[in-house]
Design brief:
Oligomer: single chain
Bound molecules: phosphoenolpyruvate
Helix content: 40-55%
Shape: globular
Distance between the termini: 17 Å
Strand content: 5-15%
Largest sheet: 8 strands, parallel, barrel
Length: 250
Amino acid sequence: MRNKIVAGNWKMNKNSEQTEDLLNELIEKMPIDTEVKVIVAPTFVNLSSAVDHLQFTSIEVAAQNVHQSESGAFTGEISADMLKSVGVGIVILGHSERRAIFHETDALIASKVNTALEHDMTVIFCFGEELKDRQSKNHFNIVENQLRDGLFQIAAKDWNHIVLAYEPVWAIGTGETASPEQVQEMHEFIRETVRKAYGSDIAEDVSILYGGSVKPDNAKEIFSKPDVDGGLIGGAALKVDDFIAIVTAF
Ligand code: PEP
């Protein structure tokens, strides 16, 4: 079933004390009757305490990355088993910062997706074109290739563990948002691409989030589009009032 989802990617922000403060404020202010699934992704070292903090709430915790191997000599990396062992069952993969700064390729992202699914994790799969791709009108091709090369190796049965997050790189952290029409046009294309590869049931059921400078004042219009099922939020997720306003924009 298609869920309404608002996920906050905290990136490399908030130390342990600040994480607790942010979570406490979130718990205090989050409307209890919301039908929106709310997810937060603190940094690795704060995942365990976030899970503890949120245990009696409906807010879920995601990791921002995972390594593709089970274990071994991979200094500085974190495995899916480690995440599961502290109660984290969701992971963000393919984020444009991982692609651009850490040189993650579609093939690497595909192997991380496979590993996460083998551990029954839910994957928030991020993808989206750069400004030059949109300017050269190549954005649909880029998005289709990212889906085919990073995700479409999965089995049909695994789609209930997938959330898609379309994030045009030119709109991430820039204050520039794709227009609601641009978002709907791309989300419709994404759903159609999933439909061609996996059929209508999966295409209709998958939640497709938009990410890229979502703010309280533009969330409502973006979320009102028929193929938009929520948002992946960066900067605004660090301000509780803004994040809640985005959640309630549904
Ligand atoms: C993101 O990094 O996934 C993101 C959408 O960031 P922002 O909301 O700050 O553009």
